[in-house]
Amino acid sequence: MALLIALHILAAVVWVGGMFFAYMALRPAAGPLEPETRLALWRGVFRRFFPWVWLCVAVLLASGYGMIFHYLGGFKGAGLHIHVMQAIGIVMMLLFGHLFFGPWRRFDAAVENKKLPDAAKYLNQIRHIVAVNLVLGLLTIIVGASGRFW
C-alpha cells in the first residue's frame, strides 16, 4: 500500500506541479519574449512535459485502481472522497487527451510551419485547458488530503 500511495502522490505532484509552474511562473516570464521565441519555448516545454503527463496518467490509474481493488476490496470499500478524486481525475485525463490530440498537435504543426498567428491561437486554447486542469488538480489534492476526515 505504501508504494502505491507514494507513486500516486508523486504522479499527482509532477502533473499538477508542472501545470502550476507553467501557468504561474513560466507563462508570465515568457510574455515579454518575441512571438517566435515565445512560441518555440512553449513548444519545447510541451514536448518535454507531455510525455511525463502521459506517464503520470498511467501511474495514477494503475496506483489508484490498485489501491481500490487490492486494499479496499473494490468501490464498496472506498469513501466518498475516493469517488470524487476518481471523477475529477478522469475529467482531467479526458481534458488532457483533448489538449494533446487537438490544440497541441495543431500548435506543434503551426510552429513548425511558422504560422505564428495560428500557433498563438492554439497556445491560447492550451492555456485555457491547462487553467481548468490546474484548478481541478488542486481541488483533487485537497479532496485527497482531507477526504478521510469528512
TrEMBL record:
What name does UniProt use for this protein?
Copper resistance protein D domain-containing protein
State the coiled-coil residue ranges: none
Species source reads Methyloceanibacter superfactus
Keyword Transmembrane helix recorded? yes
Positions of the Copper resistance protein D domain: 45-145
Record-level GO cellular component terms: membrane
Q: Which InterPro entries match?
A: Cu-R_CopD_dom
User: Which segments cross the bilayer?
Assistant: 6-26, 49-72, 84-104, 125-145
Per UniProt, the keywords (alphabetical) are: Membrane, Transmembrane, Transmembrane helix
